[in-house]
């Protein structure tokens, strides 16, 4: 079977093992043949290749074949934050090495330690499927990891130039409104005035929190981007750090609130079975036990998360309307956007459930 026919073998134009091997030797990494290769799923279009060499296991991460303008920059940023997090106590894939020389594999890439565990959004295995207490612990350990991340001194970790924390919250609503307006340039897309968009935007602009403490923001920390230990409910790692920056870490808590089941029949990360997982109010309370941050305005962050994620997903729908993305996927994500905007509007009018 050829590489093209075997879904577990990566094509040479994506990962040339001879060139990779030479580069690894130059970094002082183990020599030997590449063994037990398999492609991993990661929730993105990036290539994730597991392999073993010289008695050590590795995961290689590189952008997709067709690079976007920001692909190499994003990959380098992800490697940078993983390297900085070493020894921090935040569960994450361990950094090994990265390569900025695009001539090696045609793009920036990095190597990290494999993570043993499962992604709960892809299905719960036993014993987690049968134990509500374990499911609750997944939600709690998720909150603890985000609280720990938000408490780190990013300057002490060498990430002072990693983002632009000044005016971070003040930029958010207008930044994502501009993104949404830009979709109008795509042929075939007629936004038609998304329900509640104007209300959400105006509310965000009028209620920006005054007091904020900058910190490391994962940026995409929903349930599909965590790994859980196979035999307990502890987080093995927060994964997919592409959207990480220096900003207000409370947006990470808002992001989880935007995507989980809040009892309104909508979620972008369905869990089955869902009983046992903490409610939104319980997640906020547990986060608060492990963080010194002021949570009195958490509704604003949750509404912003709904707005931001809705705009991002609507972008795929807009590209699908223009024939630049899969139509079925675009239609599905458009429904997510409608659900996110409806949830945001409901929270503006009625507050967060049980708070």
Which architecture name of the largest domain does CATH use?
Alpha-Beta Complex
Strand content bin: 5-15%
Count of individual beta strands: 9
> What is the alpha-carbon Rg in Å?
21 Å
State the distance separating the first and last CA atoms: 57 Å
H/E element string? HEEEHEHEHHHEEEEHHHH
- Bulk shape: globular
Structural domain count: 2
Give the helix proportion (percent range).
25-40%
Decide which structural class fits the backbone: alpha+beta
- Profile the largest sheet: 5 strands, antiparallel
Order of strands, main sheet, comes to 1-2-3-5-4
Mean pLDDT: 93
The number of helical elements comes to 10
The named CATH superfamily of the largest domain? Aminoglycoside phosphotransferase (APH), C-terminal lobe
Give a brief outline of the structure.
The protein has 355 residues and is of the alpha+beta class.
Provide structural commentary.
This protein has helices at residues 17-26, 71-84, 102-105, 132-151, 168-182, 197-206, 250-259, 280-289, 298-321, 327-350; strands at 35-39, 47-53, 56-62, 95-99, 109-112, 215-217, 226-228, 235-238, 245-247. With 355 residues, it is an alpha+beta fold. The longest helix has 24 residues, at 298-321. A 5-stranded antiparallel sheet has the order 1-2-3-5-4. Helix 4 crosses helix 8 (280-289), helix 7 crosses helix 9 (298-321) and helix 9 (298-321) runs antiparallel to helix 10 (327-350). It is globular. The chain starts with 16 loop residues before the first helix and ends in a 5-residue tail after the last helix. It has 2 domains: 17-112, Phosphorylase Kinase, domain 1 (2-Layer Sandwich); 120-350, Alpha-Beta Complex (Aminoglycoside 3'-phosphotransferase, Chain: A, domain 2), CATH 3.90.1200.10. Helices cover 40% and strands 12% of the residues.
